[in-house]
Amino acid sequence: MYPHERSLVARMKDQPFALIGVNSDKDLEKLKARMAEEKITWPSFHDGSTDGPIATAWNISGWPTIYVIDQKGIIRVKNVRGDDLDKWVDKLIAEGKGAQ
Amino acid sequence: MRKALVFAMLVAPVMADEAQTAFETLKKEYSAAVEEFYRPVREAYAKGEKVQIDMTKHPNNAYAAKFAAFAKEHPKTDAAAESLAMLLQMSQDEATQKEAVETLLRDHIESATLKGAIYSFGPADLRTVAEKSPHAEVRGFALLRLAEIHAEAGEEKDAIALFREVKEKYADIPWYQGTLGQRADGGIFEIENLGVGKAAPEVQGEDLDGKPMKLSDFRGKVVVLDFWGDW
After folding, report:
1. Which of A69, A74, A80 to mutate to test the interface with B (most CBs of B within 10 A)?
2. How far apart are the CA of B163 and the nearest CA of chain A, in angstroms?
3. A80 with A66: CB under 8 angstroms?
4. pTM of the full structure
């Protein structure tokens, strides 16, 4: 996951794009050390556990779960990975440009 | 005739006990093999080092076959049911899985152990379990799993109907931290509010440094919202 996410974030550096995590780790110190190690620079909500308020509100039962949201805030696809995720992001970025 | 019957009644429990004892031995062997497999990882971790291990050599591959063979040698025993449920968690082999599922449904439909195999069943199997298991918990888990399969396939009407059935019949049965009723409510909420084409609900919280953050801060951008954990 991390290498692909890093390359996606790097590739979208100059685009209207954000990768946002909702993190369910309990040990924040350990997590931050791991994030430094893995060069995870994108922001995450601190949800604190798999029973955290955000994961509960979104009815998450498996990790990772991915939602892709367009520029108008509409959920467009769930749980796409790898190349499929890249294609969806490209498509939605292009859609946003078309609308301007 | 009477003697033969008495003999059979005496022998049956003994055989079941033998199966159970043999099964306990097999489980211990398996646990020891798994522990041995991960020993390099534990040793490296203790030294603050990291080590790569070859997952293709994981004991699950060999032991799935042993658990399958055990179930065949001790058919229709409780130990066989447990053995089949365990191998379904381990096996990557489709033919082995299929045979285990068929045997469970044919010989062990009354076993509470089916609960541990729910994720290996397809929709038709789940229907059978939801109708025929004598255990409310097993029926409830099967029905919930069936609802989830429909939800995952985007069959929203079927999924909602099944989630409602779970709520009506099995609301109070425990499920992880909560109940099947709560899980069914969550499933319905997800379809109605978190489906493709719906506006993403606001998320308000703090980032990992404790600074306030909300999802709508990123409106105007394409957002990949990733529920994750480093485990």
Report:
1. A69
2. 14
3. yes
4. 0.72
